[in-house]
Amino acid sequence: MPTVQSLLANCAIDSVDARILLSHLCSTHLGWPRTYLITHHTDELPTALIEHWYELLQKRLLGYPVAYLIGKKSFHDIELQVNAHVLIPRPETELLVEFAISHIESIFNSPNSIFTPASPMLCLDLGTGSGAIILALASYFKKIPEVFHCLNFFASDISLQAIDLAKLNSKNLDLHKNITFFKSNWLTNFPKHLAFDLVLSNPPYIASDDAHLSHGDLRFEPKVALTDGFDGLNAYRLILKSLSHYLNSGAIVVFEHGFEQAVAIQCLLQDHDFIGVLTNKDFSGSNRITFAQSK
Length: 295
Known about the structure:
Blueprint: H1 4-9, H2 15-30, H3 36-39, H4 47-61, H5 66-70, E1 72-75, E2 78-81, H6 94-108, E3 121-126, H7 132-142, H8 145-148, E4 151-157, H9 160-172, E5 179-183, E6 196-201, H10 223-226, H11 234-243, E7 247-256, H12 262-271, E8 275-281, E9 287-293
Parallel strand pairs: 3-4, 3-6, 4-5, 6-7
Antiparallel strand pairs: 1-2, 7-9, 8-9
């Protein structure tokens, strides 16, 4: 019978991907922790696991993303279930979470903070997908109760399948009582009385004619979450068209965008009377996050 050692030694895919897939299968079929791939590498593996291995191996050879094959992805110290209805969370998007954490901490470290459990700070994730951004943010502050109880979390997506998955992830992280989800095409279905203090969004920003859409993992991810069907800026236009009606004075808006879109996003924000418009770079030094403040 094949062993961990023999399967990995005769594998046609990337070695890191192979280990992730095999670790997942050994956990699913045998209940093994990840370390067993090393300590039990000569153990014979059962037939059901081997059959499942070759099934996943063939799909990976066709290009299916590893995250979809194992149904999960780590993101900013949390683990999320993912499927073909949502984007696979990227490391670059963790920058939105880090920015939000820093911003919220600066507010609550200030003696002039106006937020209390009775009058909380409202945080919104537009186009939430798997819930990665809002769940990572809520999970971080859940460890700081004195701040957590002064925050209210909201998230929206146009896809009901995405909302259902984000709700499942919130339940798995024991955050389902702390986040309100809306099915909405950006802000069209939002209650009129809501006014947010922090808005985060990683909308579809790839232009419809971008060749990257037909390469790599992007081939298998939902097109509606990748491209706006136009020039890559239409989602920002639609959001900003109505966003001002849902913001408190001094609210912060943070967008992730393509590395060549910073100037265009800055101009859109300025055209909608936002102030203090700035852009931060990602891990590779590319412009990736642009933020601004409402008047």
